[in-house]
Amino acid sequence: MTYGIVFNTVQSNSIVDGMSTSFGDMAESKTFAIVLGIVLAVAAGAIFVGGVQRISSAAAIIVPVMAVLYLGIGILVVAGNLDKVPGMLGLIFSQAFTLHSVAGGTLGSMMLIGIQRGLFSNEAGIGSVPNAAATSSASHPAKQGLVQALGVYFDTILVCSITGFIVLLSNPEYGGDAEGAQLTQNALSAELGQWAIHFLTVAIFFFAFSSILGNYYYGETNIEYLTRSRGALWAYRIIVMGAVFLGAVAALDLVWTAANIFMAIMAVINLFAVAALSNKALRVLKNYTQQRKAGLEPVFHEDDIDGGRGITAWDGTDEVTQPEFWAKRGRKVRDDSQGHAWAAPRGKRHWPPAPVTRVPVVPAPVTPVPAAEPSVAGARSAWSARWRARRAQSRTRPAP
Length: 400
What we know:
Blueprint: H1 2-23, H2 30-80, H3 85-97, H4 99-103, H5 106-122, H6 129-133, H7 141-169, H8 181-192, H9 195-226, H10 230-249, H11 252-293, H12 323-327, H13 376-395
């Protein structure tokens, strides 16, 4: 619900917001948002039904290219205003930590907004990223975990910081009419010209529309896990299409308020799961680092940590989790040919541990038990029952 419905309203709202700046006066009427919302909802619905793989493959190429271009433009803006960078940084800290800001509650408000926007940008801690990470194929879960952790720095510290620098270096008018994507577009146009507005519109479209598809996919996979009903899946698709349309025509403050509320709910729920799984996560990371220190390509099996039974994703069926896969590619890997398990060490255990042979369980032979022959006592009992039945029948016959 949070991703498929609430977050998709934010994405469609961002697309309309960005296109409004590019189209200028044509976008001032409400009809523009309604028409664009219908187009986005229909396009998304068509992809939901039959074309998500093809579109996703194209987006996987286009989106990273647009991200790199955006970062390049941001760096170009910063490089062209190096003399203003010290003043910009001083403005950030002076406005954040002045006595007036602290006493007036401005510092707490800025921290709250920063946490909300950072959480939306990298999704760390709200439990959504495992849906995407689980679709990857890695030899060790810590590998994918480290990649996802890197995404936090890339999304928030790099991309968001570049955006902030672009806006602040343009000396924006605080409290003006521009907000959301328009604020960044106006800042870029002031530095690089009108073409930057349209470039950012295209970038926002690809970023936001690919996010709509990803958010829908999160919900679809969870619905398929809960039920195989096609009716439930179709109902979800229609609701998501409606959310895309509503986001296009809704106010910016409304969609962001809803997103903030649902993000907080997800974070609170997910923190309990994070706390419950933290012990296993730390042992998985320790298993990974020990193999790296030994100069090996880390591979993982469910038996490598105590209590790992039932982890079906790491049962050795995926070939990239098998040492033989990496050995054929010239990588040095641990020897599991005799069924050795590398258990994650606890306390003062030595590393690597002594080999533990996995002994196959052979079921004991089952000897069929012959049916017991009727005993003499049983035969006499059956004869007595038949005799009593005939005697009772003869007593009930009418006299001749």
